[in-house]
Amino acid sequence: MPRTRPAMDQAAPTTAPPPPAELSLEERMAFTNAAMTLRLEEAAVAHEVNTAHITTNPVDPADIITVPLTPTLQPPPTPYPTPVAALLQRAHHRLLTGGWCAGALADEDGAHCMLGAIRIEARGDNGLAADAAAVLLDAIRRKFGDHVDTVPSFNDSWADGRHPIRMLGQAASLADTRGL
Q1: What is the DSSP letter of 124?
Q2: Tens of pLDDT along 43-76?
Q3: How far from chain centre, in Å, is Cα 8?
Q4: Beta bridge partner(s), residue 62
Q5: 177: how many CB neighbours lie within 10 A of its CB?
Q6: Among 117, 130, 133, 164, which residue has the least CB neighbours within 10 Å?
Q7: What is d(CA 94, CA 85) in angstroms, rounded to the nearest whole number?
C-alpha cells in the first residue's frame, strides 16, 4: 500500500508577521545608554583584572594641589604663642620667602636649608634651636618613618624644597599642639 503524505492546509493564509514598530528617539537612546553602560562595566572589570598586579603608592594631595606662591607679597603669619612653634613657623616663612637649599646651611643666593633657617630664626638661642630641631625630626619620622637619621639628611634627600618646607609647617603645628 502506498504511503500518503498529509496534505498541507492550503486554506490557511500565509501572512508575514507585522513589521516592528519604529522606536522613538527616547527609546533608542535608552537602549543605547543600556548597551554603553554594559560595555563600560565590562571594560572596568577588565581594567581591574589587568592592573591588579601593579603596586601603587598613595598620593599626597599636597604634591598635586599647588597654589601660586607669592610669599614676598604675603604678610608673615600670626605667630604661634609657644616659643618652639613660633620659631618653626618663622623658619617655615623664611624658606618660603628666602628660598630653600640643600647641602649647606645657606647658599650664596641667601637660601637656607631647614636647619639653617631654624638657626637664623633662633637668633643665637641654641637651646631653642635644638628643641625646634628635635620636634622637626619627630614630625619627619612620623611622616616618613624611623629610617630618617637627621634633619640635614632629610633636607638633602630632596631635589626641591616642597617637602622640607611643608615639614617645617607641620612641625610648627605639632609643637603648638604639644605646647612647646
Answers
A1: T
A2: 999 998 888 888 877 777 766 665 555 555 566 6
A3: 78
A4: none
A5: 11
A6: 130
A7: 14
